[in-house]
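User: I'm curious whether this sequence folds into something compact or stays loose and floppy. Could you predict its structure so I can see for myself?
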Amino acid sequence: MEEDFEIAFNKVKPIIFKLQRYYFIKLWTREDWQQEGMLVLHQLLKEHPELTRDDSKLYVYFKTRFSNYIKDVLRQQESQKRRFNKMPYDEISEVAHCVSTAGMQLDEYVLFYDRLTAYKKGLDEDQKEQFERLIAGERFLGRQKMLKDLKKKLSDFDDTSLREH
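Assistant: Here's the prediction. I'll summarize afterward.
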């Protein structure tokens, strides 16, 4: 069985690599693409074991199933509900020269974050939406009022450390 799987996987590898050239999924390496392809193939062969004997059907079934899977992953990646997952990832060793030593220390940042969270919990739904827009840098009616209120709540932190974060 394991031998059949390996033979089938070698047959569908070109499909995986072709889809990899067409689609970009954040943080996926070549090995991730292969691993996801293996998972899809395993599930496919579990449902249709006869595909190990019919190459033409194997290609069609796998290409359809894997491309649909990739499109689902892309939809999830681009979904508004999953904005947090879209945050950029930077390897610290690559950007260490850009990290300033001035600004908030870790304990200050934790306190700052806690205060922001407490502030947000005290808002009604419309205000929470405005807060999200404020954080995103958008302009809206009532922005200045919210900034003044927020500045009062965060008065313990000096302006220079707030501007850096």
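Summary: The two ends are 55 Å apart (CA to CA). The chain is about 65% helix and 0% strand.
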